[in-house]
Amino acid sequence: MSAPALDAVGLAASYLFVFGFIGLATLLMRRQVLPASATRKVIHIGVAHWWIIAMLTMDDPWVASVGPASFIVINALALRLRLLPAMDEGADRRNLGTVYFPISLLVLVNLCWRGVMPSWVGGTAVLVLGWGDGLAALVGEGNGAPGVRIWGGRKSAAGTILMFAASFAVTLIMTMIFRAVPPGHDAVLETVGISTIVAGAATVVELLTPWGLDNLTIPLVVAALYRGVLR
Fold first, then answer.
1. What is the pLDDT of residues 82-130, one digit of tens each?
2. Model pTM?
3. Which structural domain range is residue 22 located in?
4. Of 101, 13, 134, 37, which is closest to residue 28 (Cα–Cα)?
């Protein structure tokens, strides 16, 4: 299959994947299998895996940018007009996290597809956001612990621990799969060290970033830090 044809397939698969995930979450919410607060985070975690589709199918940075760019507009309209209840039901309108997420994707796509960093490094950053921040919020909201208020957001010990653990696991797996270890280096020690540094930084950023801005700060900080560690 030619590169333009594969790009087109990837773009079509992207919209099917994202809207399919939103549709599934909406169904689960309407059947009261999950509350709206949980479906938001299920979508958050699931949509982060769009990056894998992009890595496997898209070569042209302009094509790879179409999905994130369009969802900046779609998510902004959905938040304002309450068009996607599985994403926005009960959410504070001051929290623009659903808009910041595709903005961070758009920035990372252009950094990766234009050669500034490998696409798998961007994927690590996006999956750290998806799994780390998503699971931290699910556990933090669901365990009933009072937590503490930091810059307008409630943070729980359980959520913070899970943020670190999930970020560490994602970074460890992606590093083991994709990073070529230089000759003479201890692969295990370096991989664990990199994963610990990245997970620690992501956890601190998540703790200190309010109003959904962590959907921007976590992936951008993780990507920049990872490239710094690799250098």
1. 788 777 665 656 678 889 999 999 999 999 999 999 999 999 999 999 9
2. 0.91
3. 3-230
4. 37
Q: How many domains does the chain have?
A: 1
Three-class SS string for 15-84? HHHHHHHHHHHHHHHHCCCCCHHHHHHHHHHHHCCHHHHHHHHCCCHHHHHHHHHHHHHHHHHHHHHCCC
The number of residues in the chain equals 231
134: pLDDT strictly greater than 70:
yes
Backbone angles phi, psi at 39, to 5 degrees: -65, -35
What is the Cα–Cα distance from 18 to 44, expressed in whole angstroms? 10
Residue 43: half-sphere exposure toward Cβ, Cα within 13 Å:
30
Q: Are 191 and 175 in contact (CB under 8 A)?
A: yes
Q: Which amino acid is at 136?
A: A
Distance in angstroms (rounded) separating the CA atoms of residues 206 and 59 = 31
Tokens at 55, concatenated: 């890595």
Identify the three-state secondary structure at position 150: strand
Structure tokens at 32: 């009261």
| Torsion region of 151: left, alpha or beta (phi above 0 gives left; psi -120 to 50 gives alpha) | left
Cβ proximity of 7 and 58 under 8 Å: yes
